[in-house]
Specification:
Elements (H helix, E strand, L loop, with lengths): L50 H10 L6 H11 L4 E4 L6 H15 L5 E4 L3 H14 L7 E4 L5 H8 L5 E4 L1 H9 L10 E4 L2 H6 L3 H10 L5 E6 L4 H10 L4 E4 L10 E7 L6 H9 L7 E4 L3 H13 L4 E4 L5 H12 L5 E4 L1 H4 L9 E4 L6 H8 L9 E7 L1
Parallel strand pairs: 1-6, 1-7, 2-4, 2-5, 3-4, 5-6, 8-13, 9-11, 9-12, 10-11, 12-13
Helix pairs in contact: 2-3, 3-4, 6-8
The chain binds adenosine monophosphate (AMP).
Length: 385
């Protein structure tokens, strides 16, 4: 076990937390060799997709389907229900968007609704949808909280063929009678485990009821434990099940270590020491509360660090701007709360730092999965008081 030792300093900045995690389990070397890259033996041509869609896929630079895409696209095109157990980074978005767009091209009356837990994920799905439907003139909308609802009301009244939304805003629009979901043909519940974590189950039930006439349901989740099975059956009737997570856990690509703040040491100074290391090029720092996130980010900026904050209290515009600045390297440190960082897919994050021990292992795994992506090795440090 290798622990970062630091200089003694005054003022402690500690808060009593009750976490279910044993810190000893957070020290691991990345096991990079373990990940085997899946190379599909087929190309997108072999999937017999509509030629306009195939053209956009090729234009996007996708040559071969990823594992989840190869395994799910044929069943989804033939309108089967599906449970896909796949994490972000596997190409899962394409695996439901490609068959949806194919069906929309084959039949003008098909409409799809994709429900995701977070605003950032909704915007990512929308981006991927836009690039896959370039020049196809479909009517689509993205409905997420933190944006002007009046604009959404106008968009909701159109004959949308494709909607991606977070549950709260979607149900709000339905409640205001701006949006009717009864003609939805395909319902996608993406990152279902996150939706449960975030307390969206009743919202999802409402959406499922409002789309009861749908002909296809697709559910994606990074994990499915036994307790979720019966819930899932409420939404997806006789699904095909595809699991591509085995052996490709993103945490295999992450060096994990703990940082012990000794009595008398100043935790923030310990953090600064770390961040001054040149290897810390693109860092997501997790804080437990919005207040702590704001405070740390302020302190970092006062110390001359390029830092920004995202959390649920910031407007969507602000969050999108901050993520762009971080993506393009204009800021180095993104201070985030759990919820705000869910679903974020940013390349080349070198480090994840947990400024406090996360409350659950699930939250820990999700956080450290923001680094060590796309074939890279990342590092995660967790502060232990
Ligand atoms: P996802 O798991 O959907 O978040 O996708 C992870 C990343 O893989 C995104 O940046 C996608 O653009 C990319 N991607 C998805 N499908 C393919 C593919 N068939 N070939 C290459 N890259 C892909």
């Amino acid at each position: 076990m290798q622990q970062k030792k630091t200089k003694n300093r005054n003022r402690g900045n500690r808060k009593k937390m009750v976490s279910s995690i044993d810190p000893k389990t957070l020290v691991k070397k990345a096991n990079f060799k373990k990940e085997k890259k899946y190379i599909s033996s087929i190309t997108f041509k072999d999937l017999n997709l509509h030629h306009k869609l195939e053209k956009n896929i090729i234009y996007k630079g996708y040559k071969k389907p990823t594992e989840i895409q190869e395994k799910s696209i044929p069943s989804l095109i033939s309108k089967k229900d599906l449970i896909g157990i796949a994490a972000t980074g596997t190409g899962k978005t394409g695996s439901f968007l490609i068959p949806i767009i194919h069906q929309m091209l084959e039949n003008k009356n098909i409409s799809a609704l994709v429900v995701v837990p977070t605003r950032e994920l909704a915007l990512q799905v929308q981006d991927e949808y836009h690039s896959l439907t370039k020049g196809l003139k479909f009517i689509s909308s993205c409905f997420i909280g933190g944006t002007n609802i009046n604009k959404d009301i106008i968009k909701a009244k159109r004959k949308n063929q494709f909607i991606v939304a977070t549950p709260g805003r979607l149900n709000d629009l339905v409640k205001r009678k701006a949006l009717k979901l009864s003609n939805t043909s395909i319902l996608v519940l993406d990152e279902f485990d996150r939706m449960l974590d975030m307390g969206f189950i009743n919202d999802v039930r409402k959406i499922s009821n409002a789309t009861a006439k749908r002909s296809q349901t697709i559910l994606f989740s990074a994990t499915v434990d036994k307790s979720q099975e019966s819930l899932i059956r409420e939404f997806v009737k006789s699904p095909i099940r595809i699991n591509v997570t085995s052996g490709t856990k993103s945490s295999d690509n992450v060096h994990q270590d703990i940082i012990k703040v000794e009595q008398g040491e100043n935790k923030f100074d310990v953090l600064l020491d770390l961040l001054n290391d040149k290897a810390f090029k693109k860092v997501i720092l997790f804080a437990e509360t919005k207040r702590t996130a704001d405070k740390i980010s302020r302190q970092l900026r006062n110390s001359g660090m390029l830092s920004d904050t995202i959390h649920g209290g910031k407007s969507q515009n602000y969050r999108s701007k901050v993520i762009d600045l971080f993506k393009t390297g204009k800021t180095k440190i993104l201070v985030a709360t759990d919820v705000a960082a869910r679903g974020i897919d940013i390349n080349n994050v070198t480090h994840v730092i947990n400024y406090q021990l996360p409350m659950t292992m699930d939250s820990y795994i999700h956080r450290i999965g923001r680094t060590g992506r796309a074939g890279k090795v990342g590092t995660a440090y967790t502060f232990i008081n």
